[in-house]
Amino acid sequence: MINFMMKEGCRLKEKALLVGCEFPDNRESFAESMRELQALTESANGEVVAVFTQSRPRVHPAHYIGKGKLQEISAFLANEKIDLIIFNDELTAGQLRTLTDMLGAKIIDRTQLILDIFASRARSKEGQLQVELAQLKYLLPRLFGKGLALSRLGGGIGTRGPGETQLETDRRHIRKRIQAIEAQLNKIVKHRSRYKERRKKNDVFQIALVGYTNAGKSTLFNRLTSGDAFTEDKLFATLDPLTRKMEILPNIPVLLTDTVGFIQDLPTELIAAFRSTLEEVSEADLILHVIDASHQHHTGHEQTVNQLLHELDAGHIPKIYVYNKKDLIERERFVPTASEDSIFISAFSDDDIRQLTVLIQEKVKSALIPYTLEVPVENGKILALLESKTVLSEKRWLEERQIFSMTGLAPKHIADLIFEFQ
Length: 422
Description:
It is a single chain. This protein is α/β, with parallel strands linked by helices and 422 residues long. It is 44% helix and 22% strand. It has 15 helices and 14 strands.
């Protein structure tokens, strides 16, 4: 099957041809996966010229697709100028070599495309190191006998990051570079671990924003924190995690972290490289799972994120399912998958943000420890502690006994002090 999508636009964009195979195990998600591949290509500044798809019982071991489809693509290339061909699945080193020889074109796969987008979006030193590590680990096993394939890459999509010359020089050099990057990242991880320990010691309540890419996490992050996270209607518009304070309850420090968006078939190299950053999710006290309710496949996106959370050992953490973009959908047409702890909002609605904040407040309160304490007037230290470090709901002066009756909610380490005082 071939589907033409000629577009007018900037000629600086690379003209791409997309190729995908439908197999028995991906039949339900195949069409959405191909639409996603097109969106990823456009996010990488590519222009999709045509899409070739094929139904097969299994992957062809030598060249992924069948010979007939290869001939069809070759005939198309003879008449059209194409800068690169992007395959929807991860190709083996052998498949990549064979396809390059047979088609004589620049070829990348879905994994390499996603890695390329990450390379162009990473801003922090840690993010850049993590992406380079993922790219090197992905490319290393594909270097053997791949001189022609690498030389055909040239520049543009699929080459941002380590660079062709560096990759062709010496496999030992690449291994050394991988070791050097891992050593640098280990230092960053140790620093973050000390910071995490400090936050835990101070009973900082941590909230993580997670969701499928382009679900509206960064917009919601900015609304909840008055932050300045970059927002754009593109896949993976933001990559580096941001953390800001939230004003939820008096005296209770709350931090909100905006994380990288998830995606179907997220490359294992990226999950491994970004595991230290994604630990922010597994360390959270509450997860806000943001879902684009206007997307026709929002249920599949929700399942993908839940699966990745499970892989990150974060499936047990309390969640609020935030069905976003209600301004783009009719309320009566939408049925949330999650029946409990869910809210239907538009991130641009002040009323909706207030309702979500109330829901978050209830979750934060449920993690605090209730107390009632009678404090003699002369014990000013305990009085000051309760007034400055807990959510005080009642303070009564009992004159006949010359004591204060204090009722409220306290973080764990403050609650421990209270119980010791009792």
